[in-house]
Design a protein that fits this description.
Layout (H helix, E strand, L loop, with lengths): L7 E2 L1 H9 L1 H9 L9 E2 L1 H23 L3 H5 L5 H13 L7 E12 L2 E13 L3 E8 L7 H5 L2 H13 L14 E7 L2 E9 L2 H20 L29 E2 L14 H7 L7
Parallel strand pairs: 1-4, 2-8, 5-6
Antiparallel strand pairs: 3-4, 4-5, 6-7
Helix pairs in contact: 1-2, 1-7, 3-5, 7-8
């Protein structure tokens, strides 16, 4: 297998591989565009994604110091207005005052780099760091499901590995790091994960092995055994896993998958792309 020479692994690409190696191959190795819908109705799907990106922009600008009044005047759509109100009235509590929004960190892994764009890192230098990730999911997934997500492993690991410049030049200790998922429609019920040295070491072993596994593959990119994921994958017809897109109103009713599907994966990566 040959990845592009400048390829960078992220929580999104690694999650793609874990969910379906074939999807990883089509998307990142072959870089194949496939013009299929991810979910129906398409317009509602696109609107939700656009509002998710808009919410991230609003919060980013608010943290940078643009006035609440000026930002509020730009909010027109009902869902976005509700999310913005929830953020202003019930945003994450007990955050350190030094805040780094939309921060990118990277570190070498295998023959490539591991990179992440963080929604927010709040730091009390020498004491603690809180990673905050804004989620616009329609439903709040189970904490046990979030714990298994690559994002929950990659973000704290990479902050410890590559975040010294945010901590006066000293690397963070794993025990100083916490990750918070804050949900726009569940503002009073965030999910928090602490970190520690044992988890950091386990993540380093796991992520290094996962990248080595991907780099060692040639053409053996198997299809996922969980075919219901295919309903929300743009490559489903190419893989002969169906033609019609799954229903948007069912996507987060999959209690075993939560929002672990292609459309919501794109929402997860909103913070990883440039606006």
């Amino acid at each position: 297998m040959t990845l592009p020479t400048d390829f960078q692994f992220s929580q999104g690409s690694l999650q793609d591989y874990v969910d379906c190696p074939r999807r990883f191959q089509l998307r990142y190795v072959l870089q194949l565009a496939w013009p299929a819908l991810e979910a129906e109705p398409a317009l509602e799907n696109e609107l939700h994604m656009r509002q998710g990106a808009a919410f991230h922009r609003l919060v980013h600008r608010h943290i940078l110091g643009i006035s609440t009044q000026d930002l509020s005047r730009t909010v027109q759509e009902a869902d976005l207005r509700r999310w913005w109100h929830n953020y202003l009235e019930h945003g994450p509590e007990d955050l350190p005052e030094t805040r780094y929004p939309e921060t990118v960190l990277s570190a070498p892994i295998g023959g490539h780099r591991l990179v992440a764009r963080y929604d927010l890192i709040a730091v009390e230098a020498g004491e603690r760091a809180v990673i905050v990730d804004w989620k616009t999911s329609r439903k709040r997934p189970r904490p046990s499901w979030l714990l298994e997500r690559l994002q929950t492993r990659v973000y704290p690991y990479l902050l410890v590995r590559a975040g010294a410049q945010l901590n006066g030049g000293q690397p963070f200790e794993p025990g100083q790091v916490e990750m918070v998922y804050w949900f726009t429609d569940y503002p009073d019920d965030p999910v928090r994960f602490t970190y520690d040295t044992a988890q950091y070491k386990a993540d380093e072993v796991y992520l290094t092995a996962l990248v080595a596994e991907i780099e060692g593959l040639s053409d053996d990119f198997s299809l996922t055994a969980q075919e219901r994921r295919c309903r929300y994958c743009r490559y489903r017809s190419l893989c002969q896993r169906g033609v019609r897109a799954g229903a948007l109103d069912e996507i987060e009713d999959e209690t075993e998958l939560g929002d672990d599907l292609d459309i919501s994966l794109d929402l997860e990566q909103i913070a990883e792309i440039e606006y």
